[in-house]
Design a protein that fits this description.
Elements lengths: L1 H17 L5 H30 L2 H22 L3 H26 L10
Length: 116
Amino acid sequence: MLWIVISIPVYFAGKAIKGRNAGFGQAMWATLGGVVVYYIIYFVVAFFLGAVIGPSADALALILGLIAWLAVFRLTFRTSWLGAIGIVVIAWLILLVLDFLLIAAFGVKFPDFFPF
């Protein structure tokens, strides 16, 4: 259920960046694929490099995971790197507004997954 809800802002962000070429199915695949690829990259890099370079492997894993996540958005929406970044930023902003509206209207909010 959360996957569908989180895909809605990505859909609208994709529409804002790509116009009518963006579909809800693309948003769902980008959302699912981005999370899966991010976690795979993050844990593989953190696990294998953690033994070699220590705690700084977490920072490198985070950066590589985010780049891989953006790559999934880039490939799914067939856009440039800046377009993928734009989709992510707009989706976060839409999700933030929806979160505030849900809190104001119903007293509920999305799980804490914002980067701030």
